Amino acid sequence: MDNTVHILLIEYDLAHAELIQRAFEDRGGESKLTVANTLEEARTHLKDFKPTLIIADWRLPDGDSSELLSEEHSKSHPPVIIMTSYGNERNAVDVMKSGALDYIVKSSESMTDMPHIAENAIRQWQILQQQESMQFALAESEAQFRLMAENSSDMISKHDTSGTFLYVSPACRTLLGYEPEELTGTSVTPLIHPEDANGLIELLATPTWDDITTTVHYRARRKNGEYIWLETTARLFFDKNSQ
């Protein structure tokens, strides 16, 4: 596996480019730096390889690097650090809104420290990508759950540990005579026969970190006041970090 970190540096000022390049060389490691002096050169390089990180001077002879930033950001390309010699709060806000991961004001110190800045930026980007991946997986899982629940003849519901309905599927209309919105946000306790309620509530409040799947039989009160026997397969999820 190639663990090389490929960095594309877009810098028109040759002295600045040399200073940053020397800083990476002195740092050693597995970083490979490619230098482009213009936006046109940068776009040519980007056709040949996908860098791990782009470090771009804001003002370039053939345009503003924010043009490239918008192009790359819109395609979910590598993270971009914008450098400028004319730093102010307004510029920083505008650049960050455009999708830059970081905004650096040029100085001999910042350019010499660029390998460290790049390392932190890549680490931050990896964390953001992991979070995005987790959120996508969670959203996909939730969508699959709702698709199954909305089309099932069985009533499917989610509860917190106090027994409050967080979600209830449309099948509750047939089984209990309630609309889903009538139950969401309310406690399950009033619907359970008094002789069966304690056992079910204790199960929901079980202090464990492991997932449990169990079958529970209880009498549930329909909207018209009648009780019917239900067989419920309950799966309990607990977040270890919240205990």
What does this structure look like?
By secondary structure, this protein is α/β, with parallel strands linked by helices. Helix content is 43%, strand content 23%. The protein has 9 helices and 11 strands. The strands form 4 sheets. It has a 5-stranded parallel sheet, sandwiched between helices. Strands 4-5 form a two-stranded antiparallel ribbon. The protein is rod-shaped, with a radius of gyration of 29 Å.
List the helices and strands and how they pair.
Layout: E1 5-10, H1 14-27, E2 31-36, H2 39-48, E3 53-57, E4 59-60, E5 63-64, H3 65-74, E6 80-84, H4 89-97, E7 102-105, H5 108-112, H6 114-150, E8 157-159, E9 165-168, H7 172-176, H8 180-183, H9 194-204, E10 212-221, E11 227-236
Parallel strand pairs: 1-2, 1-3, 3-6, 6-7
Antiparallel strand pairs: 4-5, 8-9, 10-11
